[in-house]
Write a structure and sequence with these properties.
Distance between the termini: 78 Å
Largest sheet: 9 strands, mixed
Strand order of the largest sheet: 32-31-34-29-28-27-16-30-33
Helix content: 10-25%
Radius of gyration: 40 Å
Number of helices: 11
Structural class: alpha/beta
Number of strands: 34
Strand content: 35-45%
Length: about 675
């Protein structure tokens, strides 16, 4: 150790006079400058040599530089004499070369076989009076190894991703510079210069992107090494990237615990008002069976104060709640409207009904309570609205461990006048945040007004996101539905209207498709649950509403297209699963939502919104390539409305590849579900 240190000190000492000489020459450069393009004496030039060896030969690089500014570098060496010494120091052989090209003062000549550490001396001559001599030891040429290439197994079309190359220079003497190139199908995707020291490793990280979906082989190469390498055999590696248009982002959770999909349970279906239009205790069993088969997940039931003085309506309400309990759905009970205060006794009466459901009738699925339907369409003020919650709360403390408050049920605004939902959200956020645990809205749109379908969800999401952090609550949709033409040739068509050919809109494929569009968009925006208005035939009041997806008993409670669609959703998306983000290519009309189960289950639901105005079969197939799925896994693909019949076709098998990508096509008028769950 001491000998080496002493050697380094001697070498440093030897350099000091040279450094001082260079400084002295520089200080006098104002007097020693040569004229531009002038040939100078030998003292104005410096000669550097580099002798590098490696199979099959050694190369000598001669480099001449001008120590004095303005001295012209030779383009040709008139003479180059090279002497090669063996390892014992004796002269081994000589080369005598003439008229050697030296662009910019640099020339390279082949020496043949020369071993590492052999000494090489060179004398160069150019112009009549310039002769320079120097010697060097022969070193090993560099040898770069592209030891590994890492990249995404799949990537979104057009989205930049990184290709990471690990490069090792495995010889011991000199470093080198080179260029790393990533290419695909002959096209260069990206390049990066690298400098690698002897026996060192560097990592190059190149951003690239791929456009066309599918399996794309990419090639990574090292080239243009300077000094040149011994071999380029280890300079290439290949990888395959699956380019997709969608990617499930399992780590990006939009909804931590999804409440699910469901619909309104008509609280009067067992009452005389519905019996008058054909519902009986005998035939209602058909509806009950189909509702249990539906397995709704989040559902809503009205309570009307008329039931306090009408035993028939009260028993119908209780039976409707019991039916909902038997389906397994999470139940929201909503006070439909009317006076609710302590002075009238309605608060105490309502509290007794709710407590009886929980304590005496075993209604464990009753989890949410909302007071007043669409209050911002009424004359109720926000202050009066708050007062109902404050008045009721002390009377139901015994069940508050099970039941939480949902507030809102807001529409955009009153039937006449400007929107007022912002005012109501602001009030609930500032005055009711301590008592409310969630917000809810109602959304209805005409089938031709798909802009409203989207705007209502996005505008409310923006309103809630802008509230103070502590006042932001989970968002639900407690009612939603599609309306059709209310008149044809001046003839009223009833509520919710009809399709162009007179078919009730709730019986059409376009209505079901738009409901699905709404549901998928809602989950992508972080809504925690949706309850369709409404589920089955029955009378609410003297009017007639036909928004349901199960028709009347006269026809055996027929299943409309939306029933089949929601049943597919509830079979493949389970309550309390997470909703994950799905990244996608820009400017696509396709809409996907992803759901993650607690045991690793995966379900993807999607459709092409370009089919949102179709009520017939489209000849257009829509392709989907989805990444972020479990690799090499057999998945089940179920398609609603594939044949244009509003039914769910038998499930098919789609196998994801080793990169976790599944590719398939679906008709434009259809919705697909891709799931790890087993389907019949």
């Amino acid at each position: 150790m001491c000998a080496r240190a002493d050697g380094r000190r001697k070498a440093l000492g030897a350099l000091v006079p040279v450094v001082l000489l260079v400084a002295l020459l520089a200080s006098r450069s104002g007097d020693a400058l040569a004229a531009p393009g002038q040939t100078c004496a030998a003292s104005a030039y410096r000669l550097a040599l580099q002798s590098l060896t490696g199979p099959p030969r050694a190369d000598l690089t001669v480099q001449i530089t001008a120590a004095t500014p303005g001295c012209e570098l030779p383009a040709t060496l008139s003479g180059l004499q090279v002497t090669i010494f063996n390892l014992r120091g004796a002269e081994q052989r000589k080369l005598d070369l003439h008229d050697v090209a030296s662009p910019a003062g640099t020339a390279t000549v082949r020496l043949g076989r020369v071993a590492r550490r052999q000494r090489v001396a060179a004398t160069v001559t150019f112009d009549p009076d310039v002769t320079l001599t120097r010697q060097t030891r022969t070193l090993l040429k560099p040898d770069l190894v592209l030891s590994s290439v890492k990249t995404n197994r799949s990537s979104l079309s057009g989205r930049p991703f990184f290709v990471t190359a690990s490069i090792y220079q495995r010889t011991p003497d000199v470093g080198t510079t080179a260029v790393v190139t990533v290419s695909a199908r002959g096209a260069v995707l990206g390049t990066s210069p690298v400098a690698v020291a002897a026996r060192r490793r560097v990592v190059a990280k190149l951003p690239v992107s791929l456009a066309a979906p599918g399996r794309v082989p990419i090639t990574v190469t090292i080239s243009a090494a300077n000094p040149a390498e011994v071999s380029i055999r280890n300079n290439t590696r290949r990888a395959t990237v699956e380019v997709t248009e969608f990617r499930v982002l399992s780590s990006s959770i939009l909804v931590p615990s999804f409440a699910g999909y469901g619909g309104q349970f008509n609280h009067h279906v067992y009452a005389a008002i519905s019996r008058s239009v054909g519902v009986t205790d005998e035939n209602v069993a058909g509806m009950e069976q189909k509702m249990r088969a539906l397995q709704p997940q989040f559902s809503r039931i009205f309570f009307t104060p008329a039931a306090f003085s009408d035993p028939d309506r009260m028993q119908s309400f209780v039976r409707a709640v019991q039916l909902a309990q038997s389906t397994g759905t999470t139940i929201n009970i909503t006070w439909q409207g009317g006076t609710l205060n302590v002075a009238s006794g309605t608060v105490q009466q309502f509290a007794d009904v709710l407590i009886d459901l929980v304590r005496n009738r075993g209604i464990t699925r009753f989890r949410w309570l909302t007071l007043q339907n669409e209050p911002n369409r009424t004359r109720i003020t926000p202050e009066q609205y708050e007062a109902t919650y404050r008045a009721l709360d002390p009377y139901i403390q015994s069940i508050r461990g099970q039941v939480r408050y949902m507030g809102g049920d807001l529409v955009r605004g009153p039937d006449v006048g400007p929107p007022n939902q912002q005012l109501w959200f602001d009030y609930m956020a500032t005055r009711m945040s301590d008592i409310l645990d969630a917000y809810s809205i109602h959304v209805f749109w005409d089938y031709w007004d798909i802009v409203k379908l989207q705007e209502r969800l996005t505008e409310v999401r923006a309103i809630v996101d802008a509230l103070p952090q502590g006042a932001r609550k989970p968002l639900y949709v407690a009612e939603y539905g599609v309306r059709g033409l209310r008149r044809i040739n001046g003839v009223p068509m009833g509520d919710p209207g009809v399709w162009e050919d007179g078919t009730q809109i709730s019986q059409t494929n376009i209505s079901a498709f738009q409901h699905a569009w709404f549901d998928i968009l809602a989950t992508k925006l972080g809504y925690e649950g949706t309850s369709k208005w409404d589920s089955y035939f029955g009378k609410y009041d003297s009017g007639t509403q036909s928004y349901y997806f199960l028709g009347g008993p006269q026809n055996g409670w027929p299943e409309y297209p939306l029933y089949n669609l929601i049943r597919l959703m509830t079979m493949t998306v389970k309550r309390e699963w997470q909703v994950a983000a799905v990244d996608s290519v820009p400017d696509t009309s396709r809409l996907l939502s992803a759901y993650l189960g607690k045991q690793g289950q995966r379900t993807i639901v999607g459709l092409d919104t370009a089919g949102g105005l179709l009520n017939a079969v489209s000849p257009t197939p829509v392709a989907y390539s989805i990444g972020g799925l479990p690799p090499a896994t057999r998945l089940r693909l179920a398609i609603w409305n594939e044949a244009g019949d509003g039914l769910v076709a038998p499930a098919k098998t789609v196998t994801s590849d080793a990169a976790g990508v599944a590719t398939f096509a679906v008709p434009q008028h259809a919705l697909f579900v891709l799931t790890t769950l087993q389907l019949g």
